Amino acid sequence: MPLVLQTELLGFPWPTRDPFLFCVHHLDHYPSGDSNMQPPEETRQGRILGQDFSPQHDFRMYHGKSFPGFPYHPHRGFETITINRQGIVDHSDSLGGAGRFGSGDVQWMTAGKGILHSEMFPLVHEDRENTLEIFQIWLNLPASAKMVDPHFKMLWKNDIPSLEQKDQNGHSSIIQLVAGQFGDHHSPDPTPDSWAADPKNGVMVLVVEMEPQAELLLPKVDLPEVHRTLYFYKGQELIIDDKSLKSGLSISVEPSQDLIIKNGAEASEILVLQGKPINEPVAQHGPFVMNTQQEIQEAFSDYQRTQFGGWPWPEQEQVHDRKSPRFALHSDGRREVPKSNDHHDN
């Protein structure tokens, strides 16, 4: 049986397979921030502010006009998993929730029946560049969970297993276990209504860093129907099942067999998404993902009527204080901070 089932070129967004809906990798080399944590005015010249996705630039403002990022916008019917590799992300939502998370942290948000949220990238450093690197992944919800109450959770970097696997030649691979099980190791629990909350669904999310010439064993999974995809986004070459694969590929592999990944002459980085498909109809319109077009129409109607609770914050592009450490403020008023914290941890 071939181990490499299919390869596709990475685009924007990256191709995904059920139960995942969307995956995008943001890497932006933001300059040092001005006194308001914004890109200096001269660096914003020539951009279409509010719709700045041009790959010709070192950084993008996305939908932000003052701050880079994504001002408040609605979601219903799925989950977002935001993996922060570098930089600062500020979260705010329509339920009064808020947070700041940095390099190594992950935010997991179940939109459920509907939420407004913003994801902004304040340039907290005035004396150096503010590089940002994140993955945003959309994980579908089954019909039975599409209208659950919204919920978000922070997975702080100190709570996420970071596993080292050494090959017989002493070369290392470092695995950040965001979701699921790897060997005898388990990730932190996701949000309670997530498709990933049931181990029988085999959801696994890994970020892997491989030293040059390293070999990595990705163990098989003994669950039927599971999809497993590797996103080879940084490096020169991987060899899988005697196939030489260049970077910039989405690689669908056979999950029922152990997989040996051999790295080439440069350090490589891989994102791994795995999960049992939900196998339900998908009706999607922008930020709403349901099972039927009627449910999409209902989502628009509900949003127009309720604004999913309205926006309790003074700005559409809400950011937190420059000196704020990483934190999470939940809708019930509970505030949490990671065990190890500083102003930016970046």
User: Which superfamily, in CATH terms, is the homologous superfamily of the largest domain?
Assistant: Jelly Rolls
Strand percentage lies at 35-45%
Main sheet specs? 7 strands, antiparallel
Oligomer category: single chain
Task: Provide keyphrases for this structure.
six-stranded antiparallel sheet, 346 residues, 1 helix, 26 strands, Jelly Rolls
Descriptive account of the structure:
The chain is mainly beta and 346 residues long. It has 2 domains: 1-11 and 160-279, Jelly Rolls, CATH 2.60.120; 20-38 and 58-158 and 283-310, Jelly Rolls. Helices cover 4% and strands 41% of the residues. Strands 1-20-17-22-15-12-11 form a 7-stranded antiparallel sheet, with no helix packed on it. Strands 3-8-5-6-25-26 form a 6-stranded antiparallel sheet, with no helix packed on it. A hairpin with a 5-residue loop joins strand 25 and strand 26 (335-336). The longest helix is centred in the C-terminal third of the chain and has 14 residues, at 293-306.
Summarize the structure in short.
This protein is mainly β. It contains one helix and 26 strands. The chain folds into two domains: 1-11 and 160-279, Sandwich (Jelly Rolls); 20-38 and 58-158 and 283-310, Jelly Rolls, CATH 2.60.120.10.
